[in-house]
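tl;dr need the bound structure. longer version: we got a ligand (flavin-adenine dinucleotide) that a collaborator sent over and nobodys looked at where it sits. i said id run it. heres the input, straight from their email, havent touched it
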Amino acid sequence: MNEHADVVIIGGGVNGCAIAYYLSKLGMNVSVFERNYLGSGATGSCGAGIRQQWSTKENTELAIQSVHMFEELSDELGEDIEFSQGGYLIINHTEEELAQSKKNVKMQKTLGLDVSMVSVDEINDIVPVLDVNGMDSVGATFCPTDGHANPFKTTFAYAHAAEQLGANIHTHTLVKDIKTKNNQVSEVLTDKKSVKTRWVVDAAGAWSSQIAKMVGISIPNKPFRKEVLATERLEPLFKAMVISFKDGIYFSQQPEGNIVGGIPIPEQRSGFYELPTFSFIQHMSETLTRYAPALRDINMLRHWTGYYDVTPDARPILGEDSKVRGFVHCHGFSGHGFMLSPMVSRMLAEYISNDKESSVLKRLRLNRYEDEDIDMEQNVVG
Amino acid sequence: MSEKKTIVCRCEDLTKKEIVEAIQEGYTDLEELRRKLRIGMGPCQGRVCLPLVKRILKQVTGEKVKQESFPTFRPPLVPVSLGSLAKLKVESKKKKQSKDQE
Ligand SMILES: Cc1cc2nc3c(=O)[nH]c(=O)nc-3n(C[C@H](O)[C@H](O)[C@H](O)COP(=O)(O)OP(=O)(O)OC[C@H]3O[C@@H](n4cnc5c(N)ncnc54)[C@H](O)[C@@H]3O)c2cc1C
Ligand code: FES
């Protein structure tokens, strides 16, 4: 059987499904291959946060534009993705951090973001349960339009909308190889069938380097295992996501009432490890109860793991490869790929369908690592 | 007993009817069902309901559910307070975070 598709997307996470939707909307014929079920990668274990307060211009721009899209997404896709905007409160602990925050806020404001510096006394007006002394805080920043959405429901909403426009989504189908002819992608082989195509999108998350290797491309991404802790359900206590770059902690209260959050695992190293670590649970509980002592008697209920797909500058790698034509990179989200997915996916779809390359896309190509000075994203947690 | 009133997941308060409907909508993977409905996300981590859900899934789809598709049970086996977890003695030394995760 000689099947053909305009575009083959590898990976059924939020990015793969969103690209499938935007391409289908532009009239292209798309096949998605997911080796497991939709959302089985990082998307399914994601912290669900959506933040626009970044230190690099690219991430800030992509996040602001994505938030505008998230605001309309439930209506556009016809399914509720549970988007809500309770804001992000970023705690600062030192004068240096405050100075960096001021710089970030200034840059973010030039891009039109509603964000401000918050004094120590104002922190409890935003999140009452926090202990400013326990956190050792000297101030904070707050953006009220940051928020969260349900990653699983977002992925499914994109997938269903794409299918309605004619996309073929194959779950439980493993991509095994990609064939090229004269440095141009020509065919994708899976454990069930093969499909001829001129475009392949590598949206395989932490496994993207395995896909890139199939066409002889090496990418600098490394997988980092992350853990998330969830408490029992509580009455609504606060709306904002609380984060700190120094402690690496993030936590928020989900719509169901559970407090969910993460922190870097103390003995962290890169690679694929499955077992849970007690050091994470201890470290997270200790830090969380230092930030919010009132949670001391609250029970931890569940715990899960997932992988960050981390690049050297913590910014994603996007766009067509400069050596293998038709091979499109969409990975390296370094722990913030859910919040960027609407805009990133739409831009990549427009590039594939209309050859339209935005300036952000140009700056996030793989070949940026050949340059001397790359702009490092500083605002990373978890 | 009517399906509407049969509670399958008592932690998250889900009826057999809701589960059958989601399967018919196309959520035929145990993990997909879990994330769509939050079955198995209660204090028992699904030890009570997941075997039942597996049976319903088999009844509705006519296919056997693969053992691999069962979620992993992770600590804590019973809910534990954050205060006591914070005091856990962990063997490994707390090293400074590695630089490459930034
Ligand atoms: C603990 C944790 C917390 C996070 N918190 C946040 C947050 O608060 N906000 C935020 O924006 N981001 C967060 N992230 C990051 C976010 O989850 C990811 O960046 C995002 O989900 C990536 O989506 P994706 O579609 O690109 O990749 P993934 O969701 O990883 O999807 C890739 C898919 O490719 C499939 N695949 C791999 N190899 C093959 C193959 N050979 N054939 C077929 N399929 C294959 C995998 O099965 C997988 O489903 C978090 C991540 C983790 C782990
Ligand atoms: S009965 Fe379903 S989680 Fe406990």
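gonna send this back to them w/ a short note. Residues 93 and 99 of chain B are 17 Å apart (CA to CA).
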